[in-house]
Design brief:
Blueprint: H1 2-13, H2 20-31, H3 36-43, H4 49-86, H5 103-116, E1 121-122, E2 128-130, H6 131-134, E3 161-163, H7 168-177, E4 182-191, E5 203-213, H8 218-233, E6 239-246, E7 249-258, E8 275-284, H9 286-291, E9 300-307, H10 308-316, H11 323-326, H12 329-332
Parallel strand pairs: 1-4
Antiparallel strand pairs: 2-3, 4-5, 5-9, 6-7, 7-8, 8-9
Helix pairs in contact: 1-4, 2-4, 3-4, 5-8, 5-10
Bound molecules: phenylalanine.
Phenylalanine binds near residues 166 and 303.
């Protein structure tokens, strides 16, 4: 008897039904007058007196469990039915897909992150600028070729209003309006009148850095840039500064990093030199400080400017920079996991 109770208990625990008919069949099988639980109750008469107490308890327990199980199954059907009734048939069939961050934003955010860890704050300036902020204040002589119609987009007929060709224009804005110390980053979009190809576009993005204080030296610039290169491209990255020329910095340099694709051994990407150029930089020319009302005998500073497309190309090995502005989701989707 005890064994039979145990077996039926086991069966009941594992009961499952797909619909009300199946459930009713189970109820009949176990709990109707001829059901197996009821039959056990009939057999109870034959149980020896001294066992009656124990077996009686087991039997009652079995009956309760069977009843509970059937009730639970019934309830689960009715809540499923409720769910069907609450269905909102106006909802769209597919869940809306959320977008991914644009690769250029990923790079920009990473640059900002790295420099904010060493105290740089962020500012932005207008994309439509005047000549003074883009060129005049930055020591560009009036006849400088960068002002030429071929490089710069001018707004309508007024040669004083133009689309900024570099984020250095935000340097002039900040220096003319704030007192040192200044330690800031200026991310933004810039425009140049260039033929569009896999390596050039008429607009692109830069992040500019500016640090003005007492006793800022070229060594400070080098340290900041080395820190940046290692954070951005890995701690084995090496940097190399080559002398260069910008009207607004003196001395000026261009910075290369050891090619992050071949590790500096030489590959087609770095044209077998082992180095790739990533930014321009230098000590802010005293003329620029004076143009913006900062005493160049008291203060000195450094500035750098980097192309966000260029850094993204290196980081993710994107060969054609037109991909960044075509909005082809097959391209953009690949950056999903990089968020
Ligand atoms: N503005 C320069 C460019 O667009 C980059 C630069 C910024 C160089 C700051 C030196 C200092 O090429």
């Amino acid at each position: 008897m005890k064994n039979r109770i145990k077996d039926i208990l086991q069966e009941i625990e594992n009961l499952a039904a797909q619909n009300n008919e199946e459930l009713e069949a189970l109820r009949i099988k176990y709990l109707s007058k001829k059901g197996s639980v009821s039959e056990l109750f009939n057999d109870f008469r034959n149980v020896a007196n001294e066992e009656k107490r124990e077996i009686g308890q087991l039997l009652n327990d079995l009956k309760n469990k069977a009843q509970d199980k059937i009730n639970n199954l019934k309830e689960s059907f009715s809540s499923q039915n409720d769910a069907v009734q609450k269905l909102d048939l106006t909802r769209s069939a597919d869940p809306l897909k959320i977008g991914t961050r644009h690769p250029l934003s990923l790079t920009k955010n990473e640059i900002i992150d790295i420099f904010s860890r060493i105290g740089f704050t962020i500012a932005e300036g207008p994309e439509i600028e005047d000549d003074w902020h883009v060129f005049g204040a930055l020591n560009f002589p009036p006849e400088h070729p960068a002002r030429d119609m071929q490089d710069t987009f001018f707004i309508e007929q007024n040669p004083d209003i133009l689309l900024r060709t570099h984020t250095s224009s935000v340097q002039s804005r900040i220096m003319a309006n704030q007192k040192p110390p200044i330690r800031m980053l200026f991310p933004g979009r810039v425009y140049r009148n260039e033929a569009i190809s896999y390596r050039a576009h008429c607009f692109f993005h830069q992040v500019e850095g500016l640090y003005i204080d007492k006793n800022v030296s070229f060594a400070d610039l080098k340290q900041a840039l080395m820190y940046f290169a290692k954070e951005m491209f890995g701690e084995h990255t090496q940097i190399r500064l080559r002398p260069s020329y910008f009207p607004f910095t003196e001395p000026s340099a261009e910075m290369d990093i050891s090619c992050n694709i071949c590790g500096g051994k030489g590959c087609p990407f770095c044209k077998h030199t082992g180095w790739v150029e990533i930014l321009g930089c230098g000590m802010v020319d005293p003329n620029v400080l004076e143009n913006c009302g900062i005493d160049s005998k008291v203060y000195s500073g450094y500035a750098f400017g980097m192309g966000v497309e260029r850094i993204t190309n290196l980081k993710y090995q994107v060969k054609d920079l037109r991909l960044f502005s075509e909005n082809d989701v097959r391209f953009l989707k690949q950056f999903e996991s990089a968020i």
